[in-house]
Amino acid sequence: MNATLTPELTAADRCDRCGAQAYIRARLADGLSLHFCAHHGREHLDKLRGLDDVDILDETHRLHAEETPAL
After folding, report:
1. Domain of life here (predicted)?
2. What pairs with residue 33 in β-bridges?
């Protein structure tokens, strides 16, 4: 895994499979980035982690973050 700082995913980042908001990005050694929603990320994450030189940013924890109550 690469130790460089990686920008967060935003609402503009979309899943390459279904177009939903992406919460996982896999950057391959050739510079190609794959974006996945949490659902499709779960399908592919184990296989991606098994590859050499893949930088994975997993922000699925944001789906379960506590919401701030409205005032």
Report:
1. Bacteria
2. 27
Structure tokens at 29: 């050694």
> Does some domain include residue 71?
no
Instruction: Flag whether 6 is in a domain.
Output: no
Convert the pLDDT of each residue in 1-42 to its tens digit. 555 556 799 999 999 999 999 999 999 999 999 999 999 999
What own/partner pairs with CB < 8 Å and gap ≥ 24 does 9-17 have? 9/35, 9/57, 9/59, 15/40, 16/40
Listed residue (68, 2, 15) closest to 45, CA to CA: 15
Helix (H) or strand (E) holding 25: strand 24-27
Residue 18 and residue 25 in contact, taking contact as beta carbons nearer than 8 Å: no
The number of domains in the chain is 1
